[in-house]
Amino acid sequence: MSVIERLEIEEWAEGLDVEIKLAAGRDGRGELPKDFFESYVAMANTVGGCIFLGIKELSGRFEVVGIQDVAKVQKELWDNLNNRQKVNINLLTDSMVTVVADEQGRQVIKVRVPRAKRTERPIYIGQNPLKGTYRRNYEGDYLCDDEMVRRMLAEQVEESRDARLLEGFGFDDVELSTLSAYRNQFKSSKPSHPWLELDDQEFLRSIGGWGRDRQTGAQGLTIAGLLMFGKLPSILEALPNYVVDYQERPRSVAEARWVDRVTTDGSWSGNLYDFYRRVILKLVADLKVPFKLMGTDRVDDTPVHETLREALVNTLIHGDYTGRVSVLVVKQPDLFEFRNPGLMRLSLEEVKQGGISDCRNRNLQKMFQLVGLGEQAGSGISKIYSNWKALNWRSPEFQERLEPSEHVVLALKMVGLLPDETVRELDRRFGDRFQGLSSEKKLALATVVNEGLVTHARLMEMTSVHSRDVTLALSALVKAGFLESEGIGKGLIYFFPDKRPEYRQDSDGFALNLESSSDCLDVNSDHLESSSDHLESSSDRLESSSDRWEVLMKISENVRGKKKAIKEDVRNVILGLCQDGFLTQRELSTLLGRSPHTLRNSYLKEMIQSYQLELRYPQVINHPHQAYRSRREKFS
User: Fold this and answer.
1) Helix-strand-coil percent breakdown of the chain, rounded to 5?
2) Residue 441: enclosing H or E segment and its boundaries?
3) Cβ neighbours of 316 (radius 10 Å)
4) For the segment 9-50, what is each residue's pLDDT rounded down to a tens digit?
5) Which domains does the chain possess?
6) Beta carbons of 444 and 459 less than 8 angstroms apart
7) What pairs with residue 485 in β-bridges?
8) Cα–Cα distance, 328 to 245 (Å, whole number)
9) Could you give the CA distance from residue 444 to residue 448 in angstroms, rounded to a whole number?
10) What element of type H or E holds 150?
């Protein structure tokens, strides 16, 4: 039996995929909680996680109570896991259920729930997946609607979503100019390939775009063939939710305007191959990246070009074109963002590691690969991560989102992890000791320079390493004297020993820095608004005794006391609160009874990206007086 250490308890407190349950039972000796399996199936259907039995949580702090009759609780657990009347699949092995104890010997059961494979989902309670399937978000477990469950079932049985024959769709539905352009590229890539001699129908059959039902003899385009080469009206007839969209925006993601756009507006074919050909040229235009020399010849194809090609192809071949979210590609001066409908078929860890491929649209993948586009054997995403890391840019952000409908977002920021001014300050403070640190430790110290303090949650936002590795890195910096720590759980902060910040903890235990940002090194100082804007921001702050504050408290009372309120309800309340003026994240946190961390990651980011909210300072996202207001055209 291992011993629970302080470091491990801190990690539990900071993790997003952790559920703490008292599991005391009526007699206080221990009992499997009734809601255990809601958390089990929710974690399995999302990204996995850990459930701890025998610990009490109160305002972000943990108290180990222990379970007296551990054997009884373990038996209840295994009996129910292996009862198909209770849950449809047991994903756990003996090694995933362990007993740990604190220094006083109080025993805790730790259940590590793995992410279910695509072929296993949905995991559900009872015998009806439509009634017992749960998923997990930041605030807990929630019941899936019928559409989400049916999507899981379709993903489970269909190895490739684009191979199905579309009866009644033939060459009249093909944009012949697109097919001709593809065949020219195929010839350029493979000048001696025997398929070059085939007519269009046989060529399409060879690459997966044309099919025949051997039982009925019916022939026609496959979904892949229609998506890749079809005419827009024909595509929409088969896939009514189909939209592809490219937007070039001048400044922040909150800006609704664009300076260039390609979308399915009827002015061009609208198919995927033409979308790729148009958009890739726009993505790589005017890239301010260094070029290489091969001998005396300039090589314009840099790792950034390679990454953007891979990201665009990856978006198109993994899209679930039956979903309700469009394919969206956004270009900004310092950011590329790619969105595709549908969730990932593999875990993020498997995707980043590479070597495993489970493409949703394998025929589309094959079509792109035949003309030299797209990596094979699941190495595309790992290549994206390695290219961005080699440029010392901020790690790509890969996120699965469930609302407004299931989709995946890949954000590639051309922002250095360690700006020169920050590095000079750290060199001045620590000298050679700083240069020998790992990248996540350097990033932690740089965050303290820029923001006055760093927390586990903040560092997790900026790096792709595992939660426990972040915890260990912060702990090592404290032991080595780089940082000091204070607080507990989600409120644990790290700061320079000679510069303790003023801070407080919110109701959920997260740390809030109360110091003026002017006390920290501000790498964006050249772009900040004038001091008059700062004074204006301060004067706009609400007094808790004001009439407007009382009105806002009344608007938000229905969700403030509900820890597991429906997300759409919370979003609508935010829009109502921000309808008549800007509110800061801290004010919204108080009004809604939710931590700033939850607000930022579960609501504000998505509402800005969907143009429901606008920023007071759109040019400086991390402005010290940043605030949010409803976009009137969206709220109405």
Assistant:
1) 40, 20, 40
2) helix 439-451
3) 28
4) 555 554 457 888 899 888 889 999 989 999 999 999 988 888
5) 2-157 (3.30.950.30), 171-413 (3.30.565.60), 447-518 (1.10.10), 525-635 (1.10.10.10)
6) yes
7) 494
8) 5
9) 7
10) helix 146-157
Beta bridge partners of 211: 220
pLDDT band for position 104 (cuts 50, 70, 90): confident
C-alpha–C-alpha distance, residues 496 and 481, integer Å:
9
| DSSP-H helix ranges across 213-328 | 223-229, 232-238, 272-284, 303-317
User: Which residues pair with residue 337 across a beta bridge?
Assistant: 330, 411
Here the tokens at position 335 are 């950011």
Residues 6+ apart with CB under 8 A from 20: 12, 52, 55, 56, 57, 62
3-state class of 615 per DSSP?
strand
Per-residue tokens: 3: 């011993």
CA distances from 468 to 10, 307, 438, 500, 602 (A): 10, 29, 15, 25, 22
Residue type, 131: K
What tokens were used for 447? 């965050």
Total length of the chain: 636
- The pair of structure tokens assigned to 255 is 């800006």
Contact 275, 338 (CB under 8 A): no
* 537 touches 527 (CB < 8 A): no
Does residue 247 sit in helix, strand or coil?
A: strand
| Whole-angstrom distance, CA of residue 156 vs CA of residue 150 | 10
- Strands (E) in 264-406, as ranges, are 292-294, 297-299, 327-332, 335-341, 397-401
The C-alpha atoms of residue 212 and residue 235 are separated, in whole angstroms, by 19
Mean pLDDT of 87-109: 91
Answer with the residue of higher pLDDT: 595 or 497: 497
**pTM of the prediction?**
0.62
Q: Which residue has better confidence, 199 or 253?
A: 199
Q: Give the residue carrying structure tokens 């792109």.
A: 368
Q: 359: buried, middle or exposed (CB in 10 Å: 19+, 13-18, 0-12)? A: buried
**573-632: per-residue pLDDT in tens?**
999 999 888 898 888 988 998 877 778 878 888 888 777 888 886 655 556 578 899 875
Amino acid making up residue 363: N
Burial profile 603-624: b = 16 or more Cβ within 10 angstroms, e = fewer: bbbbbbbeebbbbbbeebeebb
**Burial state string for 206-241 with b = 16 or more CB within 10 A and e = fewer than 16:** ebbbbbeeeeeeeebbbbbbbbbbbbbebbebbbee
- Whether the CA torsion 537, 635, 602, 553 is positive or negative: it is positive
| Residue showing tokens 């002015």 | 267
> Which two three-digit tokens encode residue 132?
């017992």
Rg of the chain over Cα atoms, rounded to whole angstroms, equals 27
| Nearest residue to 608 (alpha-carbon basis) of 635, 577, 631 | 631
Torsion of CA 396, 151, 223, 412, to 10 degrees: -10
* 138 and 598 Cβ atoms separated by less than 8 Å: yes
Residue 477 tokens read as: 């910096």
Q: Are the beta carbons of 124 and 185 closer than 8 angstroms? A: no
Instruction: Work out the average pLDDT over 492-511.
Output: 68
Averaged pLDDT of the chain: 81
What per-residue confidence (pLDDT) applies to 469? 81
pLDDT the model gives residue 636: 34
Q: Provide φ and ψ at 414, rounded to 5°.
A: -90, 60
How far is 557 from 552, CA to CA, in rounded Å?
9
- Both tokens of 89, joined, read 């699949």
Task: State phi, psi for 113 to the nearest 5 degrees.
Answer: -95, 120
In angstroms, the CA 539 to CA 546 distance is 13
